[in-house]
Amino acid sequence: LCYQDRWVCVNKPAGMSTHRSGGNRSNQFVVSTLLKRQLSRKVFPVHRLDHRTSGALLFAFDSEMCASLHDALREQSARKTYVCLVRGFWDNFFESDTATVDKALTVDGTKRSATTVFTKLASTIILNNSAYGEKNVPISCSLILAVPTTGRTHQIRRHASAMGMPVLGDTQHGETKVNRWWRQKRGLDRLALHCLSLNL
Q: Which GO biological process categories is it annotated with (predicted)?
């Protein structure tokens, strides 16, 4: 996406880890390893995206720049914008195009404050007489932007689920029968969450 002297921003595919971890012993699907080979230089991940999330991912070429960019991302002025496809027709849940979810999330056994601002881009209804195994239930979905002002684990996914509009393809915080329908009928075999941009 962008290459500079001391850092690079890449578009991480869904299903690929940011860096090698205990749960991923293979280097085959690790962004940091593939990037190091491609650029023939050492890279330092500034932040991470969940394995199933795609989108903008920032790497530095030295530890000093990595620390500097990491600190910049922690500043209140920094902004990460995600786009996601969620279950439900937005206007059935909210009167305006923007909704803020301010709900504490438990991280490592401790409740921590968390806030995400969601903005509707589009909503649609797909008429189907046997949606999700139920008769006369229309299928609806909304395309929305999500801007987290805090950085908790699975924050966007958990907040989307909390407002009754889980991210499609989310096997942890979504609904199995809904995900199955979208996978079988529409070919959605991934988490519908993408990091669209980073502003420092």
A: enzyme-directed rRNA pseudouridine synthesis
pLDDT in tens, 30-57: 888 888 999 999 999 999 898 899 999 9
**Amino acid letter for position 192:** A
What is the fold of 2-74?
Alpha-Beta Plaits (3.30.70)
Name residues of the chain where pLDDT drops below 70. 20-28, 128-137
Q: So what's the architecture of 79-199 in CATH?
A: 2-Layer Sandwich (3.30)
In order of 7, 87, 119, the CA distances from 181 in angstroms are 41, 12, 25
Place of tokens 């090698």: 20
What are the CA-CA distances from residue 83 to residues 3, 66, 109, 160, 168 (Å)? 23, 25, 29, 12, 12
Residue span(s) of the chain under CATH 3.30.70.580 come to 2-74
CB 142 within 8 A of CB 125: no
* pTM given for the model: 0.88
- Catalytic residue annotation: 50
